[in-house]
Design a protein that fits this description.
The complex is a heterodimer of chains A (297) and B (334).
Chain A: H1 8-22, H2 24-46, H3 86-122, H4 124-138, H5 142-153, H6 157-184, H7 187-194, H8 199-210, H9 212-235, H10 247-254, H11 264-291
Chain B: H1 2-28, H2 34-39, H3 45-55, H4 61-73, H5 87-122, H6 127-140, H7 144-158, H8 181-187, H9 191-228, H10 231-238, H11 243-255, H12 257-280, H13 286-295, H14 299-327
Helix pairs in contact in B: 1-14, 5-6, 5-9, 5-12, 6-9, 7-9, 7-12, 8-9, 9-11, 9-12, 12-13, 12-14, 13-14
The chains are: A mainly alpha (297), B mainly alpha (334).
């Protein structure tokens, strides 16, 4: 009896895990993501200063960082135009970016699962109607659609999350639909139907768990784009509003001071965006190679 | 071929209809009275009621849509709340600027990206390969707006090699013909204008080109690697063709086919990127126009841009699909 199945699942799991640790890209991506999560979780502890003191201390405005003799002690990356510590704001900014990313991808996941399963599982006119709507949404560049949604529902971080979530839904719906289409034809699903399992049971117990791989892969890659798009909205002044320490907004508030020589406030937040997005892209690429070799480009 | 083109054009109709419904209803979803939304926050009650009358806003939704669609098909997108100019006019004025920027960026992206991909693949696992792909990985993760700022800081502010924004030096006499400044300078045989508009074009287009360049490099590399594994390449090498002929003449040609599709898709991202690049470099295109329209809650302008962007994107994708068929005779039109 023992040899039949126990641990079958764990064995498959440990194979995947072993392949993960062998994949340098994925591991490196995971390291960056872990660092990012640590920054977000421990911002209160590790940030040297209050990210947005009120009232701001303008006597500290635009002071350079550790590379200069003019530096303010305790502000290693210098200060912005309102005298706020750039490093602390970047650390707190990781909280904003991560939460926006996760919420936006979460929204697209919920809507995508709903639309994708309806489409793939039931097919017919439901499928063709939903997929035409998806086609139409693909006719707009994602950022433009997000901007317009923000224009309609209003500016702000919470609205930006919703906008990005909606914009990513068609992509998620397509991914889920195609894996549902693939799994639905499997014999064990036929068996489930034959023994009289309800549609809901078949979908939630059998179809969805088996479409997890592409969802994890594309979810990670979407998280990268969501962070990028959130920063873009913040940069355009349509996302996070002051004094929220958001990376994109930090850039847009600081880049006009470059002309007067204060380059640091507009430089470092960009590195934070670049490395977060890079880490998530690496992780996503690595996971794709590990979980689903068929998806490899 | 003619039948295929007709079919593709007919298939566009439902998509464009859907695009128009979406553009129409999005603006109607804005909270508050749509007449006030269209007229702007500070409009007088008379203006608002005139607009309600004109757009049939007291009528049912579907009637409103038809009224609106008929006007749009005649090219009337309404007037901007901010400038009171016709939105169509304002968009068409700025469109050539965006086109010049995006086409130039696409040119850089394809030229550099394809070459990098081909070279990488032909020297797989070499230092060049790892370096190129490392750079490409950074490229796809790059926040365009930040890259723009960094370029501006280094080449514009510190080194003072290039202008930090705008389209052309305003002191140079210049006659606008097509709106494509490089072309107009050539038409007018205007050397200083050509040099100035080219210098203004460099930084924004490099910033804009980065992401598609990186994507194209990655796609070209993997497609090239696939081609290089095929039998006909082995035959060519076996019969003694030089490596250069094998790679650049035979393999590259086949490898670039999937790249054409990517170019079409990347074009949409380029339009989105133009929104950011134009904002940073004060480039007077529709990307900057739509951002300002959103900030000012200029709904007719936002709606017009939405339609215009989608139309451009759909048309570009159609062209790429048709090109694909032309380039690869193995693909059947049916």
């Amino acid at each position: 009896m023992n040899s039949v199945n126990p641990g079958g699942k764990t064995r498959a799991g440990s194979v995947t895990l072993r392949r993960f640790w062998k994949n340098k890209t994925a591991v490196f991506g995971l390291v960056i993501l872990t660092l990012l999560i640590l920054c977000a979780a421990l911002a209160d502890v590790i940030a040297p200063n209050d990210p947005s003191p009120s009232p701001p201390d303008l006597s500290l405005a635009l002071k350079p960082g550790f590379w200069s003799d003019n530096a303010v002690p305790g502000m290693p990356l210098g200060s912005d135009a309102l005298g706020r510590c750039v490093l602390s704001r970047i650390l707190y900014g990781s909280r904003v970016s991560l939460s926006v990313g996760f919420v936006a991808v979460g929204i697209s996941l919920i809507l995508g699962i709903l639309l994708g399963t309806l489409s793939g599982y039931f097919g017919g006119w439901v499928d063709s109607t939903l997929m035409r709507i998806v086609d139409i949404m693909f006719a707009f560049p994602a950022l433009l659609l997000a901007i317009v949604i923000v224009a309609v529902i209003g500016q702000g971080l919470d609205k930006a999350m919703v906008a990005i979530g909606i914009v990513y839904t068609p992509q998620m719906a397509r991914i889920i639909r195609s894996s549902v289409l693939y799994i639905k034809e499997m014999e064990y699903i036929e068996v489930q139907k034959a023994v009289g399992s309800s549609h809901l049971r078949v979908i939630f117990r059998h179809v969805l768990p088996n479409s997890l791989a592409p969802v994890i892969v594309y979810g990670t890659l979407m998280l990268a784009s969501a962070i990028l798009d959130c920063a873009a909205l913040g940069f355009l002044g349509l996302g996070a509003q002051p004094p929220t320490p958001e990376w994109g907004a930090m850039l847009s508030k600081s880049y006009s001071y470059i002309v007067s020589g204060a380059w640091w406030a507009a430089t470092f937040p960009g590195f934070a965006i670049l490395f977060s997005v890079l880490g998530l892209n690496l992780l996503g690429d690595g996971l794709r190679d590990i979980l689903d070799p068929r998806l490899k480009t | 071929m003619r039948w295929y083109v007709t079919k593709r054009l007919l298939l566009l109709i439902p998509v464009l209809l859907g695009v128009s419904i979406l553009s129409f209803s999005l603006i109607r979803l804005a909270p508050g009275d749509p007449a006030r939304t269209i007229a702007g926050e500070h409009a007088s009650p008379q203006t608002i009621s005139a607009i309600r009358e004109k757009y049939g806003l007291d009528k049912p939704f579907t009637t409103q849509y038809w009224v609106w669609l008929k006007r749009v098909l005649r090219g009337d997108l309404g007037r901007s709340i901010v400038s009171n100019e016709y939105v169509t006019r304002e968009i068409l004025d700025r469109f050539p600027n965006t086109m010049e920027l995006t086409f130039f960026a696409m040119f850089i992206a394809v030229a550099v990206g394809a070459v990098a991909g081909i070279v990488s693949a032909s020297r797989q696992y070499s230092v060049i390969d790892y370096t190129t792909m490392g750079v490409a990985l950074f490229g796809v993760s790059m926040p365009v707006f930040w890259l723009g700022i960094m370029l501006m800081m280094i080449f514009g502010v510190f080194l003072k090699w290039l202008p930090i924004g705008g389209r052309i030096d305003t002191l140079i006499p210049f006659r606008r013909v097509t709106g494509l400044y490089l072309l107009d300078s050539l038409i007018g045989w205007n050397g200083p204008a050509l040099a100035s508009s080219f210098r203004h074009l460099i930084m924004p287009s490099i910033a804009l080109a980065t992401i598609p360049m990186a994507t194209i490099a990655r796609v070209t590399r993997s497609s090239m690697l696939e081609v290089l594994r095929q039998d006909f390449i082995r035959t060519e090498r076996a019969k003694g063709l030089s490596e250069r002929v094998v790679i650049y003449k035979h393999a590259a040609r086949n490898a670039l086919l999937p790249v054409v599709t990517v170019i079409g898709l990347e074009f949409g991202l380029l339009l989105a990127g133009a929104i950011l690049t134009e904002t940073i470099f004060a480039w007077p295109g529709i990307g900057r126009y739509v951002v300002n329209a959103v900030r000012m809650r200029d709904y007719p302008a936002v709606q017009g841009c939405l339609l215009f962007f989608a139309l451009t994107f759909v048309v570009v994708n159609l062209i790429t699909d048709l090109l694909y068929v032309l380039i690869d005779p193995r693909i059947k039109y049916e």
